[in-house]
Amino acid sequence: MQAKDSNPPDGGYGWVVVVSAFMVMGLTAAVLKTFGLFFVEIQQHFDELASTTSWITSVTITVFHLGAPVASSLCVQYTHRRVVITGGLLAFSGMALGFFGLNMVWLFATTGFLQGLGISFSWTPAISIVSHYFSKKRALANAIASAGECAFAFMFGPFFQWLIGQYGWKGALLIIGGIQLNICVCGVLMRPLASSCFLEARHCETETPPGNGASRTDKEDQSPITPKTFNWMLVRQPEFVLYAIFGILAAMSFFVPPLFLVPLSYSLGIDESWTASLLSILAMVDFGGRLLCGWYANLHVTKSIHLLAMAITLISTSLMLLPLANNYLSLAIFTGFYGFFFGTTVAIHITVLVDVVGMPEFDSALGLFMLIRSTGGFVGPPLAGLIVDMTGDYRAGFYMAGAILVLSAGFLIILDQLQQRKIRESKIRTKPEKSMLPYASLHILKHQTRRYGEHNVVV
Amino acid sequence: MTTQDSNQTQVNSVTKMSVTGHESSDAATQEFKPGNKLSVDLSEYVIVLPGGCPSEKNISVASPTEVDLTCKLDENSNLKNPQVTWKKGSETISHTSNAPNSWTIKVTISESSHLGSYTCFLKAEREISATFHLNVPTIDGREKPVIAYIGDTGVMVCKTEYHPRAWKWYKTNGTELASIDKILPKDKYEILSRSASESRLEIHRLTVADTGEYWCEADFVLGPSKARFDVRVLSVAEPLKPFIAVVAEVAILVTLIGLYEVYSKKRKAKGGEKEFDQIEQLKSGDNVTEKDK
Fold it and tell me: A415 CA to chain B: closest CA distance, Å?
């Protein structure tokens, strides 16, 4: 039996893929984050309302989430490389066509839809292929790749402003589109793994894992197993469902703090430049948190899911304590804690998804997970806004976010217990083949076999 | 009624007056706005001395109104029973003292000559002073240049929180300001006002000749206020240059990486063949040894 990704490189060319994914993260997520700089320009130029202009980003984010499962299934059918290159071309066309800026609808279609689709087709495979290339060092690799978003967002802020100052918003869009074309370069670097392209063995440029010198014969022996283009059965798996619920709750709360940090800061009497520095602190600490988490997870001292649960608990603690801040210093400290643990969470949560569903299902799971998670992202900010309006205080938003995160951590714990129970059960099942059992355990085993016999499980 | 709460909390000696209502984020000079309406609201503005240095306040006055300007002495100050004079320029104004260590003047602003800087001087062992600057409101234009392309539409938006009587637009012609309607044909530009507090100049079918300095002027009852725009018209070639450079870089990198991969695949294929042959040899060697056994 050939196991898909049975021995991923765990190094070597994998690090090239990590760097490539790092760049893709930056060229997609960071561009999206920094797009707000174009708001005022576009709004003024077309004499539109702020809410109408903000729909551009809403379209981008919606298309990004809806496109994630599509991208995942395409990854399985074609290679990650091709999907990323397609994504790069789409994102490039979105921004470059936005240069013609005929009217608002044109911008919705280009910088909204095309860009969103491009980002989706680039981001999803990039995240996915890193997990394919690594097993032991997966956490570290994922963490490094995800840190790209922070690093680029940091640079893009001043850079985009300079571009707008030099070339106007239209010219800036054109140039940014060109820069996003580099996603295609990153895509070309993402060589598919041998095990991932059994159907297209003929014209597949593969990266054979070391130790498979006779891989040619292997390929010929492989029976063409139809790859599952999309596994909807995942919804039936309780582990995936639990993790998806965790994802929804986490997404609900994650978008809230960045939204309300600035108004809270203003309401405490902190002025604009200091508030802006808070956001910079957030970005830097996020970056540090991601890398540090990757390094720590790589030590394999703690299970990934435990690490995630701890990180979530710590974030919710920071969020619950944040409203206690009454001056810049305390606000900065709590923001720092929040940002650090947020980075930790982001860095590790993809690795946990791999642990939950396993590598064979990972691609479909990733797309589906992103889609389900997006519902939380859509519900969260309006709900928080409602609560803030009802209580008249921005702090309520932070309490809400903290409470929801505690709830989500609960689901993680349930998931972990479920996983551990299954492992224990499968261990008990396999025990008689391995060890000499004393009488008592033999008795228990007979009891188990009787129970499992009802379910036709071969012991 | 007033846009400021009379409970001003003095935070520390580098005073940031945290006041409810409108407040600009600049701590050194803060702008307070009396009512927009034409009513004669009584707005009071206070500076507590000794405060930050220098002690100043900018007050925007759009329409005729009456204001009370008060200088208060901080109770922790070591100045005792100072001699107080209020001055505008060289002219002394009589004041009243409604509370201990508090001196107020009432200023009626009905024409532009009443605007200006009003200073209170407190003299005892040393002299300290505070100044209130009463001016027409500043209007928000755009500090960064307005960049547009040839053939495109250039947009300049002027905003204020008040209601000026009229808006006018000018372009710098040499050393003077020429009114837009005098130098541009009617179909070339459009001045739109969505509300009294906003004016928008759109110039269509831009050419390089349209590059220059533009001014929008808000005409308040008490005088005009201007904002400046720096319009630059670029040709499409300008952003196209870096764009083509980046696209070329991408094309080069993709080609290089593709070639490298094809090359390394060929090398591996050759190496794989060698390995394959070696393994075949070993296998046959094994078979031989096994047969011997």
Answer: 43
With CB atoms and an 8 Å threshold, state whether A213 touches B272. Answer: yes
CB atoms within 10 A of CB B98: 10
The label of the residue with tokens 């009497």 reads A269
How distant, in Å, are the alpha carbons of A256, A324, B193 from that of A330?
19, 8, 45
Q: Rounded to an integer, what distance in angstroms lies between the CA atom of residue B178 and that of residue B251?
A: 50
Over residues B139-193, the pLDDT tens digits come to 888 888 899 999 888 899 998 888 888 899 999 988 888 888 888 888 889 898 8
Strand partners, B131: B56, B119
What crossing angle do the helices spanning A138-180 and A80-98 adopt, rounded to 10°? Answer: 40
Residue in the block written with tokens 């200091």: A274
d(CA A451, CA B20): 72
Contact B210, B233 (CB under 8 A): yes
| Helix, strand, coil in percent for chain A, rounding step 5 | 80, 0, 20
Q: Is-contact B132 B45, C-beta < 8 A?
A: yes
Burial group, residue A375, by CB count within 10 angstroms (0-12, 13-18, 19+): middle
pLDDT (tens digit per residue) in A209-263:
444 444 444 444 444 444 555 667 777 788 888 899 999 999 888 877 877 887 7
Who's near B241: CB < 8 A, 6+ residues apart?
none
Do the Cβ atoms of A269 and B148 come within 8 Å? no
Whether cis (ω within 30° of 0) applies to the bond prior to B164 is no
Of A47, A175, A272, nearest to B200 by CB-CB distance is A47
Nearest to A45 among B145, B155, B257 (CB): B155
Whole-number Å distance between alpha carbons of A54 and B22: 26
For residue B262, which residues of chain A lie inside 8 Å, CB to CB?
Answer: 205
Question: Which positions in chain A have a beta carbon within 8 angstroms of at least one beta carbon in chain B?
Answer: 44-45, 47, 96, 99, 164-168, 170-172, 174-175, 177-179, 181-182, 184-185, 188-189, 191, 205, 208, 213-216, 269, 271-272
Partner residue facing A185 (CB), from B144, B242, B254: B254
* Listed residue (A294, A286, A292) closest to A257, CA to CA: A286
Q: Who among B157, B258, B275 is closest to A188 (CB)? A: B258
- The answer to whether B70 and B46 are in contact (CB under 8 A) is yes
- Using a CB–CB cut-off of 8 Å, the residues of B that contact A are 16, 18, 25-27, 144-149, 152-153, 155, 157, 192, 194, 200, 234, 238-240, 242-244, 246-247, 249-250, 253-254, 257-258, 261-262, 265, 268, 272, 275-276, 279
Q: How far is residue A291's CA from residue A309's CA, in Å, rounded to a whole number? A: 18
